[in-house]
Specification:
It contains eight helices and four strands, in the order ααααααβαβββα. By secondary structure, the chain is α+β, with helices and mostly antiparallel strands. Its main location: membrane.
Length: 182
């Protein structure tokens, strides 16, 4: 059910952004609202509290966001609260952000390595990703996991490329355990 909620509201916001040529501004506002909710978990608790009246929740949304975001974004947030969908606000906006990035051909990659990459290595990784995908640009999130020993793991959406030594050793161990000696 939650997936349906986030796609319904997220698609509506995306269509609005396209029709009104406000994609960049709504994208920035969505990121700001997501950051606000993540930085203030009490806001989410307040909106989810069953003893707080719906009208009060809508007033809170207006008071918090009206000065900082467009009427379209405030309208979406208050609509979601009025329909008791306040628990889906962050997921909806994250869906919208992903949809905008996909529309603009901007990929999000998660690269995990055993040690810190140099700037030249990061540029090489980005160049390789651009050459092997349909994206025009990448936002790359780098992480370090020393247990990989060497190599890297790259994740883009649901695709994973794992060239780490840790995985290669695990695969080799599995193959060797299956060999029967006479």
């Amino acid at each position: 059910m939650a997936k349906l909620v986030e796609t319904t509201y997220g698609d509506a916001l995306f269509e609005l952004a396209v029709s009104e040529s406000s994609m960049d501004s709504l994208y920035e506002e969505a990121v700001a609202v997501i950051d606000s909710f993540k930085a203030n978990p009490d806001l989410e608790k307040l909106l989810a509290h069953p003893k707080v009246e719906k009208e009060e929740k809508e007033t809170v949304i207006k008071n918090v966001f009206e000065k900082f975001v467009s009427k379209d974004m405030t309208g979406l947030l208050t609509l979601m609260v009025s329909k008791d969908r306040q628990g889906n606000i962050v997921d909806t906006l994250e869906y919208f952000v992903e949809k905008v990035l996909e529309y603009k051909k901007i990929g999000i990659a998660y690269v995990t390595t055993a040690s810190e990459l140099t700037d030249a290595q990061k540029k090489a990784v980005e160049a390789k990703l651009l050459a092997t995908t349909d994206y025009k640009e990448f936002k790359i999130n780098y992480a370090i996991d020393e247990s990989l020993i060497a190599g890297m793991i790259i994740r883009i959406k649901d695709r994973v490329v794992d060239s780490s030594i840790k995985t290669k050793l695990a695969n080799m161990a599995n193959e060797l355990s299956g060999i029967q000696l006479a």
